[in-house]
Structure formats: structure tokens, C-alpha cells
Amino acid sequence: MSAVAGTEVFEAERSRLTGLAYRMLGTLSDAEDVVQQAWLRWSEAEQSEIANPAAWLTTVVSRLAIDRLRQQQRRREEYVGPWLPEPLATPAAGPSPDATDPEHAAELADSVTFGFLVLLDRLSPVERAVFVLSEVFGEPHTAIAEVIGKTPAATRQIASRARRRIREQRADRRPADEGLLAELVGALAEGAVERVLSLMSPEVVLTSDGGPARRAARRPIVGADRVTRFILNLSARTPLDAQITMESVNGAAALVIRSEELSLVMNADTSPDGERLDAIRLVLNPDKLGGLDHPVDVT
Fold it and tell me: Are 268 and 279 in contact (CB under 8 A)?
């Protein structure tokens, strides 16, 4: 295979590989680093001897992502406050990337939502790799077994355990739609305490990630009263010249605030009835907000 042909093969797979690595790692910067490492290995390999380049690249990226995820976990032990994934601007809804299989296309889009990525963080690196490869990308267990160095039978057990954990924790939550978030913004703008409170589930949980550079709650805030007070105080501190927009972030509606003093992304999940907020997540760490500038298609 010529160098030009080899580059074309890799570039045809780049978006898929980036999507795989992002779901594994939760940050675009780490995902792109992993894909770049895979490119270096691909460029140095005997490409003519690789029968299935897509499978070969999937294996390489998955193994690199597992190693990077283990490094991440060690870094998070020293992280200031809660750690949340890196928000990613996603293209506005358009034609399905997999028009022949709408159900699979919907699963791909759902698997990049913030709520889903937060649940994936509760899996071990190997469990996460197995779950993402099998449930999101539809890889056969025989191929996944090669990635993690276990038997297909053991791989099936890992997949089953990870699937059960995700389903139990996910329940019937779904991303909050633009209408519900807009209603919350209106209530906050008016300082309407009771209206804000009415939009909260009794056991709502707010998690904020400010990293070392931004002031944020160092522990999750639990309960409608406490969460309401917190976001009302945050709203009162929002600079008057801040740009406030509703954008597509990780495939769902999110509130984005941009200013020199305060920039953040707020996304949320609803309770099963879809009418109240069950989980609210704020990302204020400036190191994690670069992915909002240029939409990336990882579906």
C-alpha cells in the first residue's frame, strides 16, 4: 500500500476512531492524542500485511485509550473537586449518519450525551472499553477479546456486567430539552425562587467542575432547596455583558455562558416524567471549554 493510499485509509476512519476514543476518555484532547498515536503506529506498520485496517485501527485505539484512561484515573486522584467530561459542541440535527439503520444512529447519538458519559466513568477501564465496543460500536466479542487479552467467554461476562450496571444506574433519565432549560433560565433571570424550585426533583443533584482555576462546589449538591439556592446565587454573579446561548452540546440542549469573568456549560437530565430536573452539571474549568468553539461529529 502506497503512503498516499495508507493516509486515505486512515483519514476515512479518523472520525469513527475519534468518536470511539472520546467515549472511552471523556475528553476531546485525550481522544485526539490517542488517535494521533494510532496514526504514528499505522504509518510505521507493514500496511500491506494488514487484512482489515479498520479492525486493526480499532484495536490500536482501544488499547491506547485503556492505557490513557488508567493514567487519567491516577490524575483524577489529585483533581480539585468533581471531575466531569469535556463538553463537545455537536452539529445541529441533520440527516442520519446511518440512514440504513436509524435505531443504531440514535444509539450512537445517545452514547455521547453527558449523562451517558458520566455513567461510563463509573466503569473500570476494561469494562468501559468492552461496553463501548460491544454496545455502541457493535464489535463482536471475539474481536473485543483480542483487544483486552481475554477469552470471548470472559469478554461476554464483562459486557453483561457493564450493561447491567449502566441500565440500573440510568433508569429512565433523559437529557433535558431546550424548552425546560429555557424555562429555568427565565425563572433565574426573574429571581423567581418558587418557579426555580418547581423545576427541581426533590433529590436533584448538582455537580460542578471548576478544576483548579475556577470557583465551584467541591462536592455534589443534593436536594431541591440547596440546588435552587446555589444556581440563583450563580445567576446573580453572572456578568451583565455575558453572552448566554442555548447550544447543541454532546448531542443535547445546553446552556452556554461566555464572558471574560465567567464561562460555563450547563446541561441536565430530567426525571422519568420529563418535567423536572433530576441532575444538573456545570463545567467551568476553562481547560475543558475549548471543544465548544468548533462542532465535532463523533456520531
Answer: yes
Q: Specify the CATH class of 174-292 in words.
A: alpha beta
Where do the domains of the chain lie? 3-170, 174-292
Q: Select from 30, 6, 4 the least CA-distant residue to 17.
A: 30
From first to last of its 299 residues, the chain has per-residue pLDDT tens of 677 788 999 999 999 999 999 999 999 999 999 999 999 999 999 888 899 999 999 999 999 999 999 998 888 888 888 999 999 998 754 444 454 565 666 667 788 999 999 999 999 999 999 999 999 999 999 999 999 999 999 999 999 999 998 887 776 678 999 999 999 999 999 999 999 999 999 999 999 999 887 878 889 999 999 999 999 999 998 988 899 999 999 989 999 999 988 899 999 999 888 889 999 999 999 999 988 887 887 76
d(C-alpha 13, C-alpha 36), whole Å: 12
Contacts 24+ apart (CB under 8 A), 158-164: 158/126, 158/127, 158/130, 159/130, 159/131, 159/134, 159/135, 161/127, 162/123, 162/127, 162/128, 162/130, 162/131, 163/131, 163/135
Sign of CA dihedral 83, 85, 89, 92: negative
